[in-house]
Amino acid sequence: MTKRSAILYLLLIFALLALVAGWYIASFLNREVDSVSFDSSRAYADVQTQVSFGTRMPGSAGHAQAREWMRAELESAGWDVQVHESEKMGHPIFNIIAKRNDEPPQIILGAHYDTRTIADNDPDPAKRTEPVPGANDGASGVAVLLELARSLPSDTTPVWLVFFDAEDNGHIEGWDWILGSRAFVEEIKIAPRAVVIVDMIGDADLNIYLEKNSNATIRAEIWNTAAALGHGDVFINEEKFSMLDDHTPFNEANIPAVDIIDFDYPYWHTTQDTPDKVSPQSLQAVGDTLWHWIVE
Ligand SMILES: [Zn+2]
Fold it and tell me: Cα torsion at 209, 215, 221, 225 (round to 10°)?
């Protein structure tokens, strides 16, 4: 081998090494990007997991199982979990609070994890005493919060994720709506910039209208973020419903709160509220929007 061809040979080896190193670094960077983006397949699996626990009505085995599962998921994503225990109308309340540090929360994201005790809207009268599976009404909001727990960068403005108990038993003897969030607002001292509730946001045919009792400034920020991401067909910039939901106690306490809800759901409070009515794409639209609203 001549001296010249030896140099060329070395150069070739260097070029190949540089190529391999470049490819390795690029794949590493891609993985970094992947790890901080909202993954709707994981969120959809969270819907299926919750429904597999059976009814999550307060006091049920599925309710206790859901609490332990949420704790494990949150802790493995690096969040500290506290249980706010209280009592309302003689019912024990277990609100689950997840935080990443001791700073006071600037944003609180909330969803109820309990499911309604009876499917009193079921078209079949014989099924109106059965429990609601709660794939959309309960599990979808929890799924979006859990996937945000996994995907939000750790250096965002301080966020709490709160999983409210006992939201969904209104118009049942001995119960009322939103018991968990009422206990939370009464007993936990907080002054966040915004509270955002997600409820029934997994419908495969997702149409989220502006909710009339929501804070107009925060509402506009979120709907503008959705529009910029191309989700303007899901986040419709028109008012439609006035809801009593977990945002209500916050609004009553003069804490700016927004309810993100699609109340056009034909399976609401029926035994048909099952995972096949929920789509990953819907969870993605809501998850992406909240992720970008918080991070940007
Ligand atoms: Zn409900």
Answer: -30
pLDDT tens, residue order, the chain (296 aa): 566 666 667 777 666 666 666 565 555 454 444 446 899 999 999 999 999 999 999 999 999 999 999 999 999 999 999 999 999 999 999 999 999 999 999 999 999 999 999 999 999 999 999 999 999 999 999 999 999 999 999 999 999 999 999 999 999 999 999 999 999 999 999 999 999 999 999 999 999 999 999 999 999 999 999 999 999 999 999 999 999 999 999 999 999 999 999 999 999 999 999 999 999 999 999 999 999 999 99
Q: How far apart are CA 208 and CA 190, in angstroms?
A: 28
What's the DSSP call for residue 214?
A: S
User: Residue ranges of the domains in the chain?
Assistant: 1-35, 39-295
Q: What is the CATH number that goes with domain 39-295?
A: 3.40.630.10
Query: Which residues 6+ apart lie within 8 Å of 50 measured at CB?
Result: 56, 66, 69, 113, 134, 135, 138, 139, 142, 143
- Rounded to the nearest whole angstrom, what is the distance from the C-alpha of residue 116 to the centroid of ligand 1? 6
291 CA to centre of ligand 1 in angstroms:
25
| Token digits of residue 54 | 């059976």
**Spacing, Cα 269 to ligand 1 middle (Å):** 6
Cα–Cα nearest to 77, from 149, 143, 141, 142: 149
User: How far does the centroid of ligand 1 lie from the alpha carbon of residue 296, in Å?
Assistant: 31
Distance 51 CA to ligand 1 centre (A): 15
